[in-house]
Amino acid sequence: MRLxxxxxxxxxxxxxxxxxCRFAMPAYPLPTWVESxxxxxxxxxxxxxxxxxxxxxxNRLAPSERGFRLRGPYATTPVxxxxxxxxxxxxxxxxxxxxAGDPLRDTGEDFASIVPLLDETDKWExxxxxxxxxxxxxxxxxxxxxxxxxxxx
Length: 153
Fold this sequence. Notes:
Blueprint: E1 14-26, H1 31-51, E2 69-75, H2 91-99, E3 123-135, H3 144-152
Antiparallel strand pairs: 1-3, 2-3
């Protein structure tokens, strides 16, 4: 007779994750401005992530992962208030309404906004990405009966 196996997972330790942040600056900057702003934002990025438990140690990373990557410019993304999401149409729940003659038309609400072209904006965004170290992030996925409870509500 076999003994039951212990299904406890060992400690997964630390893992590297690539994180990104964006910052805005006036349009058509000089290349020297971009480089100096990159280093200022990189320092702020590291300090902000350290407050949240992320660790940036370039000596512990592989040489290909060290440093900060700068990408851009991008048009500034307008930030707007997120409206309350309207009730979505669910076939199982709304089938009786459709059979009764309710067409369930689209209300025209859209959460996407039109982003202007790069030449039409007065600010540009640049994106910095770097590799940070943290304990392995575990994600719990719901069981099928838990998913059904979420769908019903």
